[in-house]
Amino acid sequence: MSGKAFDEVFDVVVVGSGAAGSAAALEAHRSGADVLVVEKCDEGSAGGNTRVSGGGWWVNRDPERARIFLRELSGSFPVADDVVDAWATETAEISTWLKELGADVAMSGDYHTDPEYLSVEGSDSYAGMDTIEGRMGNGLLHAFLISALVERGIEIRFDTPATRLIVESGSVVGVEVDGVSGSQRIGARGGVVLATGGFQADTSMVRDYLRIEDHVLWGSPASTGDGHRMAQAVGADLWHMGNMMTITGVRDTAGTGHYLALWNAHNYLWVGDDGRRFVDETAPPCHGHTLRGGSYELFPLRPFHLIFDEQMRTAGPLSPAAEVLPVGWNLLMNGSRWSADNSEEVEKGWITSAESIKALAEKIAMDASTLGRTVEYYNTSCAEGRDDHFARDPGTLGPVVQGPFYALKITPLLGWTNGGPRRDGRARVLDTRGDVIEGLYAAGEISSTYSWRKDGGFHIGDALAFGRVAGRDAGTRA
């Protein structure tokens, strides 16, 4: 490659410094490549969802069984065999690889000790979740990966967004960036690895691909689909763009939200704008998929209302504290906290209160007779110990009877998107004909393996696995 057309030339250029980008840079460097990482955010906010995630990866004890597990979880949305094979092989090596880098790896004793999809064939490959120091969240994985890059002299340029891929003779040979020194053209002999995260912070893309009209963010506000657009501009095909993970959330600041966990008591029900229940409120969320009507569905997709009583309010915070679950942009980056007894949220007006269900309905502009009957029928189910409408576990049927009564609007909290540029088992991006776009790789949330269901620690595992694959392949190509 001639250096005349470029301001600088490296063997491999990685776009993004989260789990996938860091893994790609570290593996390319290990292969002997000269590597540059460009990151659009400043150092204090870089790292994408990895920085504010649980930071754990699932422990794959049996790659052969893991192949079966992934295929079963994918269901009617199959993933290519070479991708399944690479995923099953590479995820089994993550903990060893990180230990070789110097990480203090230990299994989490509190979260994801068992698979969520225990009844699915192949789930016996799931042996728990490893984390840095055996602790969840708090940016520990991101901090370690950045330190590993710095220790090896791998340059990271913050405040340097990539704007366009450079193509010559059908191959990606570099990337244009807009850094502190202005626009530059940076060549990449072995290739460019896109590790730019998802598109959950781009409202238009969320509406177009996920059909969600109203949502708040759990992760990074920098996940705006930049890599998706750059890849599409050079002919990349897309896969499973409609898959994602939302959970129950509450809007805080513009664009960000709190996770509504409801772990402390069961004196509540969910109703739509029509004042009627519509689902088993306690069905496990399973990373964005809820069992409903005998099959798994994406949930939630639209706002609804939490109705609860004084017993629930005083039982503990509706959203877990950072000491319990140190995950999410709002907690870790904004420093936002939910009050221990939910009183501050009542004072702020987030939670509406009233002395009766009828008065509560009127305050939230809901038909009072309908909501009254809904709560009455629900309380009858609690008394009888049987939910004939939605088969809620009898052990969770806590009556809503003690005033004051409360209502809280729940908004889908979008954790991550799954779809993006289609890639093969070597993390090479494919065009709309299924051919490899030479010199272009994708890893992490921009091009998640998961076409449908996924288990705990799967996303970080996927990012680290295919980041390594991409970096290794690009470094060798150089």
Automatic annotation (TrEMBL):
Entry superkingdom: Bacteria
Cofactor requirements of the protein: FAD
Keywords: FAD, Flavoprotein, Oxidoreductase
Residues in FAD-dependent oxidoreductase 2 FAD-binding domain copies: 11-452
Pfam families on file: FAD_binding_2
Protein name: FAD-dependent oxidoreductase
Source organism (scientific name): Rhodococcus artemisiae
Lineage: Bacteria, Bacillati, Actinomycetota, Actinomycetes, Mycobacteriales
